[in-house]
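User: I've been trying to design a sequence by hand for this structure and keep getting stuck. Would you show me what you'd pick, starting by listing the structure so we're on the same page?

Assistant: Good idea, let's start from the same input. This is the structure you sent:
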């Protein structure tokens, strides 16, 4: 299982096996921080897989080397139907893209899709500004004289009524 975890970076297993595997794999990763012939032989003695050892010393240590410990993560996924065993996904910490940086990028793209794009926002005010000034001057002179005429007529009518009395 340790070889599978190192080669695939993520495996599905039971919680009990994952906890046991964590105590087995994390000291090997700590041993691999210093790349010496002795450390390679010690790790190979435990894993017995040349590809897993080379993957550990070449690629995994480059990402995990600065971390002081806690190289694996156990995420519980539920229970297995057949025997009701609690299942989990065990993964190397720095190899989960969804929890590192792409999760925030996905949210940003989702937010952008809900709002108007910047080019539409820039075009919309320009179009409104161009349409409003052309419509307002034509509408104002037509409505104001009519309103003044209505107001002027009743005033004239009132004066005429007073004068007639």
């Amino acid at each position: 299982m340790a070889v599978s975890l190192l080669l695939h970076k993520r495996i599905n297993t039971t919680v009990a096996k994952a906890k046991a595997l964590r105590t087995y794999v994390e000291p090997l990763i700590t041993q691999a921080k210093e790349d010496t012939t002795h450390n390679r032989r010690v790790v190979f003695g435990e894993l017995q897989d040349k590809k897993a050892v080379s993957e550990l010393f070449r690629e995994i240590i480059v990402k995990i080397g600065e971390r002081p410990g806690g190289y694996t993560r156990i995420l519980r996924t539920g229970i297995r139907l057949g025997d009701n065993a609690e299942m989990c996904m065990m993964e190397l910490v720095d190899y989960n893209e969804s929890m590192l940086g792409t999760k925030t990028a996905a949210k940003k793209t989702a937010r952008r899709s809900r709002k108007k794009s910047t080019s539409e926002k820039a075009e919309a005010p320009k179009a409104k500004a161009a349409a409003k000034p052309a419509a307002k001057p034509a509408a104002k002179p037509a409505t104001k004289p009519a309103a003044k005429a209505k107001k002027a007529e009743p005033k004239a009518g009132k004066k005429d009524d007073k004068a007639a009395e």
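That's my pick for every position. To get oriented when you compare it with your attempt: The first helix runs from residue 2 to 8. The chain has two domains: 2-95, 122-165.
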